[in-house]
Structure to design on (249 residues):
């Protein structure tokens, strides 16, 4: 009998290892660790820097996602953490950098922003509320709820698991993460109201990240952390996912 299918909407923490980004079928990535432990497979839909808004866009615009929705046995919302990172330049403007023309202008703007982002993150981090973030918490939980409702309308009764924002020590952000606490409070409040299970990423990977055992970028994880998150996710879903060949009642 076929095992359960996990639809994982995630950011780059789901597919970056200790050195580089990996193919989605790399068995050591946490979505695949969890799926293997449950005897099933993960359908990973993810991107670099994805916020909850990107996940909603993928869910509503990517026909590859639509093709698996009828088979999904659990929804994993591995987005929301990147939303809480410092964003000195408004997100809408920052995401326009890759499409700037001509190419020399694009390279100059990108390298200039990368050089100044750490200092700007530190400077803005002292403002009330910690300065601007990639996506405000109220919008993050709004998009998470949209994703949850859309998938459970098609697959009613399936378990949904979300994640608290992870931690980082990334020089690219000046080591700053003042928006994390507000994002965690919002995520906890939404999850309690929506009856969504949560994985506490700081508890699972915090020591791993802060000790420097993860990716040298200070943001992504090593295989040790992937294994821990995958095992924790599988434990949350154990007994709650159904076999694909068993119709939902």
């Amino acid at each position: 009998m076929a095992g359960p299918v996990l639809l994982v909407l995630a950011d780059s923490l789901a597919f970056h290892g200790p050195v580089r980004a990996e193919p989605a079928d790399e068995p050591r990535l946490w979505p695949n660790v969890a799926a293997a432990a449950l005897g099933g497979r993960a359908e990973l839909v993810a991107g670099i820097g994805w916020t909850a808004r990107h996940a909603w866009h993928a869910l509503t615009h990517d026909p590859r996602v639509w093709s698996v929705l009828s088979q999904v046995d659990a929804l994993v919302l591995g987005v929301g953490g990147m939303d809480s990172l410092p964003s000195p330049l408004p997100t809408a403007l920052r995401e326009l950098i890759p499409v700037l023309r001509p190419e020399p202008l694009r390279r100059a703007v990108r390298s200039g922003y990368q050089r100044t982002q750490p200092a700007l993150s530190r400077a803005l981090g002292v403002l009330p509320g910690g300065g601007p973030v990639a996506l405000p918490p109220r919008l993050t939980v709004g998009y998470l709820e949209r994703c949850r409702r859309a998938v459970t309308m098609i697959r009613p009764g399936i378990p949904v698991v979300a994640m608290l924002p992870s931690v980082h020590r990334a020089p690219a952000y000046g080591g700053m993460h003042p928006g994390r606490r507000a994002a965690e409070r919002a995520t906890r409040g939404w999850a309690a109201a929506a009856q969504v299970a949560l994985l506490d990423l700081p508890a699972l990977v915090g020591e791993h990240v802060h000790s420097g055992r993860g990716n040298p970028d200070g943001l992504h994880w090593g295989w040790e952390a992937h294994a821990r998150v995958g095992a924790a996710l599988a434990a949350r879903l154990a007994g709650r996912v159904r076999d694909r060949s068993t119709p939902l009642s």
